[in-house]
Structure formats: structure tokens, C-alpha cells
Design brief:
This protein is an alpha/beta fold. It contains 13 helices and nine strands. Strands 6-5-4-3-2-1-7-8-9 form a nine-stranded mixed beta sheet.
Amino acid sequence: MEVVAVEAVAVAVAEVRHSNVKTEFVLQWHITHRCNLRCRHCYQHDYTAFFDDRKIMQNILSQFEELLNTYHYRGHINITGGEPTLHKDLWWLLKECAERNISTALLTNGTTLTVQDAERLKAFGITYAQISLDGCEKIHEAIRGKDSFHRAVNGITALKSQGIYTDVSFTVQRENIKELKPLSKLCYQMGVDKLWFDRVVIPKDEDKQHLSLDRETYRKFCQSASKLNRKGKVSCARALQFLPCKNKHIYHCTAGKTLLTLLADGTVMPCRRLPLIAGNVKKNDLLSIYQNSPLLQQLRNTTLPSECSNCLYANDCQGGAKCIAYARTEKFDVRDPDCFI
């Protein structure tokens, strides 16, 4: 590592430690690419890779701890896939994380979850579980496949039976823009703790089905969502959603800063929705990748997009979602193209 890079790391560590407040660092770990669904908007192309060696997984946990200790971060791991419940070592991994005092959450399609699974999740102390629903039965299954809806709902019921904080993720796309309101009613009836939404992310040239919303359609969707938000039925806490909802908390992208994604083949990305490769844990450890990857360095040093310089919300929003900007323009350092200011 160059001297300048070492000094920069030292300064960053000193600043974090001086604050005496531990910032959360999130690792989104796709422990398998195997999945029992084939969702229409899925950005995954490989369905075979998975971590099959506990020693390798232990080593990755140790690498993550090294990164956390170096920067005085508090660690959290979102365990996902593919479908993470299909991995034979899921329960072992949750136990390992608990023993290392690393908090965990499970991001799942929910279709395989049973009450017995929920009991085990509760015993391992997961922070929360997230299940994807893209509408009520007809639309959800058009997007995610036959029989996926009721199995996902059963998974939610199992989680709530054990008092596990459960949120539902809704990926908004052209086919389901009218589904948020009826879905919010269903989630309320099931006792879901949070229903939140975000935009589908598909590179412009790959969006053959035209699933992505244009700016005006997304603006109108957010305005509709804001009415549900004021009733406490929908969370509006993702990029740009503060505009119609008038949230005090304004989301900004943390990809490559306090968020990394680890795929089942060892690939490290700043975010799963920002498909750029920073390295691979089969070649370098997480800390080295975090410190030395030119991509991650650029993300951490990216200045405010020039288009945002005079915006009232610039310092908090920081340009919106980098993944959307990259999908539409192949640049992540420009303003979110869906911004409607």
C-alpha cells in the first residue's frame, strides 16, 4: 500500500475512534446463488455457486472482524442468496455470528420458512427478517412464480408467531405500481412491522421488458406512497422518497463506504445493485480489498454531483441512488436520474 493510502487510513481510524461512537458496517453476504424461484426482475444469472466449506466461511468472518476492528465499526451481516434457507450451513453460520457478537438479519423469499425455522431464528437472536412480496397473489406470482405468494405469506406468519421483527420488501416496477395500497392492507392485517419499497434496478440496455419506471411515473408512485406513509402503513426511507414524504431522515447511498456485498463465488461488490467488482476474497482479504480497491476508494471519495450543488437537500441526499444512476448512465457519480426536484 502507498504511504499516502496508509496515512489516509490512519486518519480515518483516528477520527472514528475519537468520536467514541461505533458506526454500523453492513456486509450483505450471499451465501448461495441457488434459489427455488426465478423472479422476473432478478439480477442474478448464476444459480449454482455457494460457500461449501465452513473453514472458508469462518475465515471470512475473521476477515470481517479485522475490518471492523481496524475502523472501530460495529458489524452487521445480512445473510441472503439466492435463497439462504437452502444452504445447509445457514444455522451453523448464524451460531458463529452470534458467538462473535455480530448481529444478523435474514433476507429471504420466505417460501421455505416453517414455525420450527422461526423458532431457531429467534434462538440465534437475528435482528430482523425480510421477505419479498411484489403485490397480492396474482401480480406477485406473475413476477415470482406459481405458488410463491401463499408460501411467502406462511413464512411471514411463522416469523410473527415467534415475535421476530419482520419487514416486507416491495420492488416497484411497471407491472405492480397499483399493488402497494392493497399490499399495505394485507401487511397490516398480518402484523408486518415494516413495508418498504424500492425501484427495480436493471441496466438500460437489458430492460427488454421495460420494467423500470420513468421519472414522472416514479414521482407519482412516491406521492401515492406518501399518503400511505402518513397513515403509518408504508415506510418511505429510501433514495428520493423523503421528497413527497417529508421525512426527517434522508437516505443516502453507503455503497463502498459502510456497505459491502459478498457473492457466493467470492466476488466483492460495493452493493449488489451496483454491479461493479472490487475484488475477490479468494485472492485478497476483505480489509485489503476495502482499503486498496480503486473502485471503493472512488466511491468513498466521490464528490457531490454538480447538478446537486444548489439543492437544499444535497448534503443529506448526496445525489440519490448510485445504482440507479449507473443502470441508466453507466456512471455512479452523477445525480439520480429519477430526482424530481
